[in-house]
């Protein structure tokens, strides 16, 4: 009975929202007729797709194996030398991306590289928490590493799914299918047991398969190139899902990597190739790409970027502000216009900061 009441309330809320949108559309149309001034849609994203890779650097993206990502870089803003952790440990690097803090503050150390079921969840606030606090914005997270489970605390504003290395069938295409099915269910108005009932404001998808292939077969191997192609295809499918839901034009992409393939060698023809000297070699210099709604086109980001800056950039893009303890700085030079401030009035007054 309670479930039925909840469903009815959600449907009423959605119907009311639809009526308001209809009235707003009519008002805008009438205003255009009266003034002759065309209405210009807001240039601020409602959604961010955050793709987090591993073992992928500039050479991999521009190798021809990743046309979707390469085009997003070409059509957006890019830095090919953003800073990850050094050494680029996987779990601490993801923790820094989510919390906007260095290891010394979020305390996810190298010990977290080994999964411990008895370990508690990450205690520092994450971008998911700040999004909810500042604007009531929701997140959906898809991890391909069981170790990341403890980086995303169970909250009513986060849907989380993990399909890790323990499941051999897990690959980028599987994750793309998970995302497609998830979006279909949360937009169906039926819930299906998920916390969200609409397209999430932040979709974070983790794909580490390039790193695994590079370490096992070598960075110049056909298997590594194939893994890059599979990742690129999955990203393209996720983009198509948003297009089908008619929200792609309201979406910003952020793509980065927790680590990159090893050092590069310059051949006789002047072209760079990933070194084969050590399949284990990793670089902390990673790509950081922004593209889509309100992002300038075709620019190279001039300032120094750290993975820690990702969270603040997401909040800035969505127009969210809140008091935070993090050391994350928004990369505001990538935006065409300053995003309009959106709030639930939950943040502290500026006088108390």
Could you explain how this protein is built, in words?
By secondary structure, the chain is of the alpha/beta class. It has 2 domains: about 1-40, no CATH class; about 45-350, Alkaline Phosphatase, subunit A (3-Layer(aba) Sandwich), CATH 3.40.720. About 35% of the residues lie in helices and about 15% in strands. It contains 10 helices and 12 strands. Strands 4-3-5-1-6-11-2-12 form an 8-stranded mixed beta sheet, sandwiched between helices. Helix 7 (about 170-185) runs parallel beside helix 9. It is globular, with a radius of gyration of 21 Å. The chain starts with a helix and ends in a 36-residue tail after the last helix. Residues about 1-40 and about 265-280 have low confidence and may be disordered.
SSE ordering: HEHHEHHHEEHEHHEEEEEEEH
Strand content: 15-25%
Principal-axes shape call: globular
Q: Give the strand order, joined by hyphens, for the main sheet.
A: 4-3-5-1-6-11-2-12
SS class: alpha/beta
CATH topology description of the largest domain: Alkaline Phosphatase, subunit A
Unreliable stretches covering 5 or more consecutive residues:
1-41, 264-279
Average pLDDT rating:
82
| Radius of gyration (Å) | 21 Å
Q: What's the architecture of the largest domain in CATH terms?
A: 3-Layer(aba) Sandwich
Tally of DSSP β-strands:
12
Our count of helices gives 10
Portion in helices: 25-40%
For the terminal residues, how far apart are their CA atoms?
Answer: 45 Å
Largest sheet: 8 strands, mixed
CATH superfamily of the largest domain: Alkaline Phosphatase, subunit A
């Amino acid at each position: 009975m309670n479930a039925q009441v909840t469903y009815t309330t959600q449907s009423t809320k959605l119907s009311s929202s639809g009526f308001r949108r209809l009235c707003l559309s009519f008002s805008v149309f009438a205003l255009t007729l009266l003034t002759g001034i065309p209405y210009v849609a807001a240039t601020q994203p409602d959604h961010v797709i955050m793709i987090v890779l591993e073992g992928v650097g500039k050479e991999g993206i521009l190798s021809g194996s990743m046309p979707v990502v390469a085009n997003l870089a070409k059509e957006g803003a890019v830095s090919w030398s953003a800073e990850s952790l050094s050494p680029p440990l996987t779990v601490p690097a993801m923790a820094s991306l989510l919390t906007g803090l260095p290891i010394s503050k979020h305390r996810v150390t190298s010990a977290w590289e080994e999964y411990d079921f008895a370990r508690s969840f990450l205690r520092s606030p994450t971008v998911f928490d700040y999004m909810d606090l500042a604007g009531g914005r929701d997140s959906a997270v898809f991890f391909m590493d069981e170790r990341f489970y403890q980086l995303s605390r169970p909250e009513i504003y986060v849907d989380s799914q993990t399909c890790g290395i323990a499941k051999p069938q897990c690959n980028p295409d599987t994750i793309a299918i998970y995302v497609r099915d998830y979006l279909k269910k949360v937009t169906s108005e039926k819930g299906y047991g998920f916390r969200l009932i609409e397209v999430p404001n932040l979709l974070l998808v983790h794909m580490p398969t390039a790193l695994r292939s590079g370490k096992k077969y070598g960075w110049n191997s056909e298997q590594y190139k194939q893994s890059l192609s599979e990742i690129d295809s999955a990203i393209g499918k996720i983009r198509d899902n948003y297009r089908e839901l008619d929200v792609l034009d309201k979406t910003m992409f952020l793509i980065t990597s927790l680590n990159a393939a090893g050092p590069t060698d310059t051949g006789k023809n002047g072209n760079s190739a990933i070194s084969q000297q050590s399949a284990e070699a990793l670089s902390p210099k990673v790509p950081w790409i922004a593209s889509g709604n309100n992002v300038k086109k075709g620019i190279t980001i001039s300032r120094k970027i750290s993975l820690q800056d990702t969270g603040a950039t997401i909040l800035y893009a969505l127009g969210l502000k809140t008091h935070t303890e993090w050391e994350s700085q928004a990369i505001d030079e990538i935006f065409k216009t300053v995003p309009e401030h959106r709030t639930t009035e939950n943040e502290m007054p500026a006088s108390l900061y």
